């Protein structure tokens, strides 16, 4: 019988073999980057740091000399795919001004109430969301955003959460307190799906 002697481990040879192994497929790298976004804070969003395009009003205190035209230009600046899924977003004071605007040709109001119960108000046929955190009309302000917000912005929840059981702080009341913590982040992922209106600086 012939016996083969046991081979001693050679760390140098093993490292050389690992270096010669083919690199992972780029699909795996993309998947790792997508997973990393859910666990790390992004520096510039997922859209390459691109900013949302805007329609310029040319006036610092109003929506322009022809504000109805500004809204119409903003509406049709988006592609039909995003336009048909778009919503308007502005605060209450801006919405009050927009409700008074009329089409220069027909004289019809651009704003329309929701006629059926539970239906939103619309501007140029698209729903309006009132957001009190939006800018008011003013110098260098961006008071109105229009577009497919559901496609443009993403909210990501980090997988897993931490829960702390505290039986001491409320023990005199016979209660047990639970403290939960979860990390959530958001970022612009598709700048081309939005369009904003920007006022002049002066």
Largest sheet: 7 strands, mixed
What is the CA-CA span between the terminal residues?
97 Å
> What's the number of extended β-strand segments?
11
Mean pLDDT: 80
Count of discrete domains: 1
Please state how the strands of the largest beta sheet are arranged side by side.
1-11-6-2-5-4-3
What's the helix count?
6
**Which spans have pLDDT < 50 for at least 5 consecutive residues?**
22-43
User: What portion of residues is helical?
Assistant: 10-25%
Question: How would you classify the helix and strand content by structural class?
Answer: alpha+beta
| Element order: H for helix, E for strand | HHEHHEHEEEEHEEEEE
Beta-strand residue percentage: 15-25%
Radius of gyration from CA coordinates: 28 Å
What kind of oligomer do you see?
Answer: single chain
Shape: extended
Summary tags:
202 residues; alpha+beta; 7-stranded mixed β-sheet; two-stranded antiparallel ribbon; 23% helix; 22% strand
Question: What's this, in brief?
Answer:
It contains 6 helices and 11 strands. It is an alpha+beta fold and 202 residues long.
Describe what you observe in this structure.
By secondary structure, this protein is of the alpha+beta class. The chain has one domain (17-198). The protein is 23% helix and 22% strand. The protein has six helices and eleven strands. The protein has a seven-stranded mixed sheet with strand order 1-11-6-2-5-4-3. Strands 7-10 form a two-stranded antiparallel sheet. The protein has a two-stranded antiparallel ribbon with strand order 8-9. The protein is extended, with a radius of gyration of 28 Å. The N and C termini lie far apart (97 Å). The relative contact order is 0.20.
